[in-house]
Amino acid sequence: MASKENPIVTFFQWLTPRFHLLDDLDKPGTIESIQKGAELVGSNLWTLIFAIFIASIGLNVNSTAVIIGAMLISPLMGPIVGVGFAAATNDFNQLKRFLRTLTIATIVSIITSFIYFSLSPISEAQSELLARTTPTIYDALIALFGGATGIIANTRKEKGTAIAGVAIATALMPPLCTAGFGLSQGNWYYFFGAIYLYLINSIFIAIATFIFVRYMEFPKVDWGLYKEKETKVKVYLSVFAFIVIIPSVLTAYQIVRSSFFKGKAEEFIRREIITNGRRVLEKNIVYGNQSKIEITLLGSKIDQSQEDELKNRLKYYSLEGTELVLLQDLSTTGLDKLKFEILSEIYQYQMDIGNVNTEKIAKELKIFFPNLLTASFAKTKKFDMNENVYKDTNLFDSEWKKLPTKDELEKLEAYIRLRSGEKEMELITRLKIEK
Predict the structure, then answer these.
(1) Residue 210, class by beta-carbon neighbours within 10 Å (0-12 exposed, 13-18 middle, 19+ buried)?
(2) Class for domain 337-431, per CATH?
């Protein structure tokens, strides 16, 4: 009687081959392709410069589509993948070559973006620029998985479209452009933040490349009779790997801690601070040696005993040692400033709208009513004593050389209603008295 095979074993026998990476591996083609990435001369150099200009323009005008286009044509991925590949194959000479190429590419990119942003009339930092100044754990993970995808796609006989997607996902060019922007504006926070993000992306791409090249068993450099040199090379590579991996692990750890802190702070605000009668106008979450949560509140006030209880509850959100600052008094400088800014914006908006409408309407009316001297148009409220309520209305006040006739008044009112789009309208016409 034939013995039945274990279904679990059968399942894994069916599943395992589907994860093989060696079936359609093209080692000679991969080595040739990676070697080309070390060349930053001629067309490659010009492509990099033009791609940086395109990405800088995209960041300047806040156009995601333009930025994506620049990332697609950028040759920056080549030397970074080459660094990981050379380290994995014990090729110290190639490692130095790729590092030199990457350094030149980085410097050229920053100088190019610096030149563009120094000449650009738009000096405001758009959202796409600001997003490239602070790395998060997600940036590190994207770089790691993007690097893995890139080297796997690059080692296939059929390259497919994955490499283009990796160039977009890992986003190497925008941080360099942001660094150039920071340099042109003298903003060192933007500059170092963007360089930091670029280094994180590059390091994790190289690490992913190193791991998969070793897994796919690419041939290592054979030093032949020069065993002493081979030993020295291995020491150099070990030191290089240590320098690259240890700081990146520490960086990843710090990024995870920062993301965890900010997530817990958001949860604390959402659960403990926000109620039906209270809203958060502004919040500032700072992670570091002296972590702080600063919140500007609107609505029902938190008294001292409630504030003490909230500070005590921070420990339940793993936020021990965090300073909690609540800005809720009208006498608070920050809130006074915020209130002033809000009211100023509302007033300025109303003035702008009123000026534009009044000016246009008055000039048009002057064509049809030559006796019209001055005009003003404003939104206001009138009190209805019968119903004991305020009602919205619009007031048109005007001075005339000669008062309009009844027929002219009807035309005037009809024209203003049509031109302003308002249904409720009060007309005041006054004869200008000459002194």
Answers:
(1) buried
(2) alpha beta
Q: Which two tokens stand for residue 252?
A: 């990843």
Let me know: does 188 contact 226? Beta carbons within 8 Å. Answer: no
Among 83, 76, 75, 93, smallest CA distance to 204 is for: 83
3-state secondary structure of 221: coil
| Nearest Cα residue to 60 out of 134, 114, 139 | 114
In the block, which residue shows the tokens 């070990």?
A: 238
**Domain parsing of the chain, residue ranges:** 20-221, 259-331, 337-431
Q: Does domain 259-331 have CATH number 3.40.190?
A: no
CB 425 within 8 A of CB 413: yes
Whole-angstrom distance, CA of residue 412 vs CA of residue 418: 10
Q: What is the DSSP string of 4-61?
A: PPPHHHHHHHHHGGGG-SSTTB-HHHHHHHHHHTT--STHHHHHHHHHHHHHHHHHHT
Q: Across-strand partners of 427?
A: 396
Q: Tell me if 20-221 shares its fold with 259-331.
A: no
Residue 179 has pLDDT above 50, yes or no: yes
Strand ranges of the sheet holding 292-299, from the earlier edge strand across to the other edge: 278-286, 292-299, 323-327
Angle at 149 between CA 147 and CA 155, to 5 degrees: 100
Both tokens of residue 380? 């206001």
The percent of the chain in helix, strand and coil, each rounded to the nearest 5, is 65, 15, 25
**Of the options 1.50.40, 2.60.120, 1.20.272, 1.20.1080, the CATH number for the domain spanning 20-221:** 1.20.1080
The answer to whether 83 and 95 have CB atoms below 8 angstroms apart is: yes
**C-alpha closest to that of 195 among 179, 172, 174:** 179
Tokens of 147: 């690097």
Q: What are phi and psi of 217, to 5 degrees?
A: 55, 50
Q: Please choose, from the candidates 290, 284, 277, the residue with its C-alpha nearest in 3D space to the C-alpha of residue 327.
A: 284
Half-sphere exposure of 258 (CA within 13 A, CB side): 16
Cα–Cα distance list, 357 to 343, 353, 362, 364, 400 (Å): 21, 6, 8, 11, 20
For a pLDDT cut of 90, what percent of the chain falls above it? 2
pLDDT surpasses 60 at 394: yes
The C-alpha atoms of residue 143 and residue 202 are separated, in whole angstroms, by 7
- In angstroms, the CA 421 to CA 226 distance is 89
Question: pLDDT tens, 29-84?
Answer: 778 878 877 777 778 888 888 888 888 888 887 777 787 777 777 788 888 888 88
What whole-number distance in Å separates Cα of residue 361 and Cα of residue 356?
9
Report pLDDT digits (tens) over 146-167.
888 888 877 777 766 556 566 6
